[in-house]
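task queued by scheduler; priority normal; single chain, no ligands, no partner chains; default sampling; output format set to structure tokens
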Amino acid sequence: MTMLEMSKTIGELALLRVEGFQVQVHINDAKQAYGNTRYLVTPTNGTGGAWVDSSRLTNIGQGV
């Protein structure tokens, strides 16, 4: 994924897979780490944030 493609995801909503359920999150930042795309996400309801691998996110920017 290019930096331009990653930058377009910032500010979008996505679903984060956590155990057996999915949580709606905001994408706040994006980066490449060891060849993997990672996103800084925060929940739409609740507190906290974390860098997560792109493989755990679905429906990025699709108005979840």
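post-processing summary
- The CA atoms of residues 24 and 45 lie 8 Å apart.
- Residues 3-58 form a domain with the SH3 type barrels. fold (CATH 2.30.30.140).
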